[in-house]
What does this fold into?
Amino acid sequence: MSNSNQWVSALNGIVGEPNVIQDPDRLKAYAVDGLAPKAVVIPGKVEEVSRLLSYAHLEKLAVVPRGNGTKMAAGGIPGKIDLVLSMLRIHRITEHDIPNLSLSVEAGITLAEVQKKLAGTGKGSFLPLDPPYSEQATIGGIIAANSSGPRRYLYNSARDLLLGLKAVSPHGDVVAFGGKTVKNVSGYDMTKLMIGSWGSLGVITEITTKLLPLPEASATLLASFGDLAKAGSLTRKILHSVLLPSAMELMDGRAAGQIGEKAKYLVAFSLEGVGEAVDRQVAEIEELAKREGAVDTKVLKGEDDRTFWIRVRDFALASVRARLIAPLPVILRSNVVISKLAEILGNYEKMAQTAGIGCALIGHAGNGILTSYILDYDAAKMGPVVDLIGKFTDEAAKHEGNLIVESSPRDLKERVSVWGRPRSDNVVMRRLKETVDPGGVLNPGRFVGGI
Amino acid sequence: MEKDSMIGELVRLVGRENVLSSDMHFKLYEYDASLIRSKPDCIVLPTSTEQVSKVVKFAHDHKIPVIARGAGTNLSGGSVTVRGGIAIVLTKMNRILDMDIENLRVVVQPGVVTLDLKNVLARHGYLYQPDPASEKVTTIGGNFAENSGGPHCLKYGVTSNHVLGVELVLYDGQVVQVGGKALDNPGYDLMGVLGGSEGTLGIVTQAVLRIMPKAEAVKTMLCIFNSIEDGGNTVTAIIGEGIIPATLEMMDNLTIKAVEEAYHVGFPTDAAAILIIELDGLKDGMERLTERILDICRQNHVREIRVAKDQAERDKIWAGRKGAFGAVGRLRPNYLVNDGTVPRTRLPETLAKVVEIGKKYNLPIANVFHAGDGNLHPLILFDERDKDELARVHAAAMEIMKLCVDMGGTISGEHGIGVEKIQGMSLIFSARDIAAMKKVKAAFDPLNLFNPGKVLPETEKAA
It folds into this structure.
């Protein structure tokens, strides 16, 4: 391998000197698990990404793709990092086909900016994804991490929305998959394979997605419960009813308190659609909640409706900011069969109490996804937190699920498996990575099984 | 390996009763619903995952191609053994293993017939959404391998949006679990790439499906037009208004006449086009939405609108649509169906050009399609004994594929590439794109024994 002076001049040649960061002080901000890159490159064109990866492949450099850095605390500890590849300058809206309800955008644009443009164009439309870091997260990062939010209950997740994408392979090949038709079975569905691959198979440069018209009306119904079993029963009844909320979240008192709602357990419903249907669902769910034993109910509309869901989405971020602690909370994400979510939330709550760990719990009650936030983590709590993660994982596994560590400081990563329990299909995943990226250029060591 | 010893070995692995090897059987399993034919060297009908695994391991050890097959309704040659080998017919593995209604999941074997499952679920008030027109005979395994669509996919997505996990036999016979009842399992979305992989990556021996409660209200409308352009423009206008119904299906005059002759469902045989528009969901606001749609129809010169008054009327409309291929099949000895897909705004101009292509090659083309998805189904009618006509059919089919690509679309929306469209792959993908797909194939199937000769053209080299 050539020395770093040589390759820095090669990088300068590809993206131009102002777009290469080498100052060690500035590089610290791009460290992953304490490991700073030797340089950050900020290409402005897809062709530059291609040249950068060809070069990295040739020189055996390890490359970490990055947007606004909201997910850098995820994944396994990297074996090495040479380059951070920032996608922030590749950020155009390349095609907005309003009558076809489709949109193509580049990776570096934020979802927030996309939504603003969509809402203000024509009759108004939106991309039905509502992941965390509502203002900061970029499209590329959201798709690479398969990030989702409460409204996936009605709108599903990226794999159900994307029509195609473009990427650069670990060898520097520019490739395009899918297209802009809503149905497409031509060749393998590589788009789905790239979603959630955490930049380990290619660098996503552009996506094409379906859009939905903005709902005519929306409202939120909150139901607070003293008894978790009753809250759980309400969510299951809605799940099996004809009603169609866009989100159904169940949270414990600690989580509710932090977003400004007083409740031992809170169930939050988002209702969107035609006015008549929203009104009827609010009324019907409210009545059902009361029958199930809700101690209080509340309807949010307009700005209150909007900010409530932003608080849920940005739960970790807001809490970290409020406490001014180091921005690396421990966030755990469990996936389980839907009907057991409330029961598991209760068990997690007890386990955390017994361990003396402060833990806020928020679950997508219609999807079986439960997020646990340990926001005041410090190294002194490492032992008990490691134990707790083991217990949480066992509990999820009992219900056909698993647990991944979505965010964590490095010391904890050294003690737990951040991608959960190994599964029998990991053997295929490993072969896939070895076939697509034999040189280990992209994000080495950070994905499932140390891929 | 000698054919006789292969058959002997397979009999030992799965039992005499599960092996077919007579000439008559070879003839029965040499085709699917496409025009492609080729005989397998042996046919096995395994009854368990273990048997599938044993057969695949045997094939791997002796480098024999294996092709999984369900009901053989494939429209692109996907289930034809073009390189010979073992046809693994999964129709004996047809049990529903787990009705996990409280978790909105069912676990089935691959040979379960789609409609049988839907009928069982309906008794509990639940739905499995994908509804390919051939659902009366097609199997879940085949639907997943082809990523089948159907009318309701407009609103609910295609098969791969509803299959959440599989038990998969890998190339060496190893059995793994991919996905499952819970969402978002860690790692690559292998389910995503398995859906629609046409049996080229592995063999599914169990599938976990997502089900949902039946909608509160359904409204089905039959809209009759005097010109096909008006019908196409109506579709574009509905989507353009931001309305996404549950279905938006269209048929042209030739199809309408064939359906009416075959089934007598009450379609007007002098109509140039009909649209079947269905809304489902909550009853609230549905009347208002219906009115908006009917307004759009009227602006586009609809001749008549019939709203189904009850389930019987609704069933009749759908019987007409789902029987369309069969009805058209009565007109000439053969048909070739394309399923090119275009952005839905380009539908009217694409249709007009399909008509021109039919004229140019002097071939009757019946059109029945998932209009809301932009998914065309031009059925080119012919007699395969007429070699000149057959050549014109293939030329016309290629031209329709090219047309769809030129319109910003793709060559297959739901029927798969198989053998039939393999030459069309380079119309939409670069050599590099195809090379990337081949890496996926190599990771799953390093010896190229799962359904060889399908999906990916062999001659492509990365530039």
Summary: Chain A has 17 helices and 19 strands. The first helix of chain A runs from residue 4 to 15. The two ends of chain A are 23 Å apart (CA to CA). Residues 217-258+269-311 of chain A form a domain with the Alpha-Beta Plaits fold (CATH 3.30.70).
